[in-house]
Amino acid sequence: MKETIANLEDKARELRVAIVRTLHKSQSGHTGGSLSAIDMVTALYFHKMRHDPENPDWPERDRFVLSKGHAAPALYVALAHAGYFPREDLMMLRRLGSHLQGHPDSKSTPGVEVCTGSLGQGLSMANGMALGLRLDNRPGRVYALLGDGELQEGQVWEAAMAASHYKIDNLCALVDANSLQIDGEVAKVMAVAPIAAKFKAFGWHPLEIDGHDMSAILAALEHAETIKGQPTVIVANTVKGKGVSFFENKASYHGVPPSDDELPRALECLGCLD
Amino acid sequence: MSSNMIATRDAYGETLAELGGENGDIVALDADLSGSTKTSLFAKKYPERFFNMGIAEANMMGTAAGLAAAGKIPFLSTFAVFAVGRAWEQMRQSVAYPKANVKIVATHGGITVGEDGGSHQSVEDIAIVRAIPNMTVIVPADGVETRAAIRAAAAHKGPFYIRLGRNKVPTIFGDDYRFEIGKGCEVAAGSDLTFVATGLMTAQALVAAGLLHKEGISARVVHISTIKPLDQDIILDAAMETGAIVTAEEHSVIGGLGGAVAEFLGESHPVPIKRVGIRDRFGTSGKAEELMKYFGLLPENLVEAAREVLARKGK
Questions:
Q1: What is the rounded average pLDDT for all residues in chain B?
Q2: How far is B90 from chain A (nearest CA, A)?
Q3: Interchain pair B65, A130: CB under 8 A
Q4: Looking at the whole model, is its pTM more than 0.90?
Q5: What pLDDT, on the 0 to 100 scale, is given for residue A273?
Q6: How many angstroms separate the CA atoms of A84 and A113, rounded?
Q7: Parallel, antiparallel or unpaired: strands B5-7 and B168-170
Q8: CB pairs A-B closer than 8 Å
Q9: Going from the N-terminus, what domains does chain B have, and what CATH number goes with each?
Q10: Cα A31 to Cα A77: distance, rounded to the nearest angstrom
C-alpha cells in the first residue's frame, strides 16, 4: 500500500507538471482549480476507477463527471496519461479544431462522459448515470467532482435531495473545497459552510479529508464504497494552485495560465527543472 | 376532420405506456405533474423505470441527460413553461450540447391552458428551444400525430422537444397518416394563398380554408409539425405556387413557426406573409375557447389575415 501511495504521489506530481505545461502552452485556462483537484483525479484514474482507455465505452466501467468543468486540464492530463489519447494533444488545448475544448465535451474527447462547464449541473447527470447503471444491474460506480463555490448553485441541492431520496449508493461526490472562487473567498462571496453538515442534512454520508493526502483520499474512496442505502460525499479541503507556491491560495490565479516567466519557476516548485 | 376529440397529452401518456412494454430502456421522469402530463400511465405500469423528481426541473433535466449517458431513453415531462423556462440552460448544456438522447415532452403549451393564467401559459417556448443547436422541435396537431411523433422520437437518437396541449382537440389525421420527422404535409389543396399552421391551429386553418372557399378563394393548408428542422421544400413550393402565406400558431409571433417561415422565405422567396399568433404579450386567465377568441386565433382571424396577404399580393 505504501508503494501504491508513493506511486500515486509521483503520478500526481507528473500530472501537475503536465497541467502547468498544458496551460502555459494554451495561454488560456484555469490553473488554480486544476491543481487543487488533481490529487483526487489521480487517485480515481490511476487507482480506484475500473476503466479501459482502449475501450472508453466499456459498459462495466466506473464513470467520472467533472462537474467543475473549468478544471478540464486536470481531467485532460489524466485521460492523456491513462492512454485515452496522445499526450501531444494536450498542447492543442483550447485551439480551434482541437478535441480538447475549453470545458469538457463528451462529443469531442475520448473518455469524457458528459458535457460540463456551466456549474451546478454535473451532480444531476451523475445521479442519472448511477440510476441507469442500477437499472441495468451493472457494478459501475459514478464519481462526481464539484467545486465548493459551485455549491452556490441551487441545482446542486436539488440533485443532493434526489440522490438521497433515490438512495443512490453507487454514487460518490467529491467536493474540491479550495475556499476560493473568481471574486475571492467563498466565505465572503456567498458562504457555503458547513459543507459536510449540509450534505448530511440532505441525507448523505459525509466524509471530510485533506484533499492532498493521498492515503486519506484512497481511504475515503474505499470507505465510500462500503456505504449502502445513501450517497457519500467526500469533502476534500484543498489549496487552490497546490504545488506551485506562488499560485497557492490566490483567487487571482483562478482563470490565469502560467506566463513565460512563471513557467520555469512553476516547474521548479514541482521538482522539475528543464 | 373527424369529430373524435382527444387531448394530445392523453395520446402521449397512452403511447409512452405502450412503448414502455416494447423497450425496456425507456424511462420517464416528471416533476410532480405526472397526473397532468399523463406520464402517470407509464409510472403505473413500470414504477421501477419512473422517476418523480419533485418540483425541481433543473435537476430533472440533468438527471435525464445522465440516464441517456448510461444508455437509457428518457422521456421527461412537465408543463411547457417549466420544462423550457425553468430548465432552458440545463436543456442547452446537459442535453442539446452533448446530443443526449433525451425526449422532452412538454404539455400545457400555449394559452389553452386557460384559467391558470399567464404564469402557466407558455407562449415563447418554441422560439427559445428552436434557437438551441441540435434540438428537434415538434408540435403535433392531434392525437394520431402525437402517437406517431412520440414513437418516432423514441426510435430516433438525439434530443427532442415535443410540445403538447392540455385540452381535447379534433382529430384531423386518419389512421393511415404517416408521420415523418422534418416533413410537413398538405392537408388541403389550394392555389390563392397558403395557411402554414402547427399544433391545434391546423384544425382552425382547415375551417378558415372552408370559409374562404365559399367566397371563391382557394386556400392551401400546410401542416408543419416539425418546426425544426423546417420542411423548406413544402414551404418554398407554397410560396412559389400560391404567392401568399399566413402562418398560424398558439405561440408568440416572435421566433416560433411564423418566425421560422419568415426567416426562410425572406432569404429564399419573399412573398406577403402574415403571422397569426400571440402578439408579444403574456397570456391571461379565462376559458380556453374564450382565450382563442381574445388572442385572435379563430378561423375568422385567419380569414382576415388571408384577405390582408391577398391584398398585398395584389389580387
A1: 97
A2: 7
A3: no
A4: yes
A5: 62
A6: 13
A7: antiparallel
A8: 110
A9: 5-170 (3.40.50.970), 185-309 (3.40.50.920)
A10: 13
A59 to B63: CB separation less than 8 angstroms, yes or no: no
Contact A114 B65 (CB under 8 A): yes
pLDDT in tens, B16-73: 999 999 999 999 999 999 999 999 999 999 999 999 999 999 999 999 999 999 999 9
In this prediction, residue A251 carries a pLDDT of 85
Burial code (b: 16+ CB inside 10 Å, e: under 16) for B272-286 equals: bbbbbbbeeeebeeb
Is B290 among the catalytic positions?
no
- Grid cell, residue A19, equals 497541467
User: How many independent structural domains does chain A possess?
Assistant: 1
Hey, are the CB atoms on B93 and A121 less than 8 Å from each other? yes
Which of A125, A136, A161 to probe by mutation at the B interface, max B CB count within 10 Å?
Answer: A125
The C-alpha cell of B284 is what?
Answer: 391571461
Residue A41 lies in a domain: yes
- The alpha-carbon gap from B283 to the nearest alpha carbon of chain A, in Å, equals 28
The answer to whether B163 and B137 are in contact (CB under 8 A) is yes
Sequence-distant (6+) residues with CB within 8 A of B208 are B195, B219, B299, B300, B302, B303, B306
Indicate which residue of B14, B18, B22, B57 is catalytic: B57
Dist CA A125 CA A113 (whole Å): 10
Cis peptide preceding B133, ω within 30 of 0:
no
- Confirm if A107 and A143 have CB atoms less than 8 A apart: no
Please indicate, yes or no, if residue A274 is contained in any of the structural domains.
no
Question: Which CATH number belongs to the domain containing residue A52 in this structure?
Answer: 3.40.50.970
Domain with A143 in it: 2-269
pLDDT at A1 over 60: yes
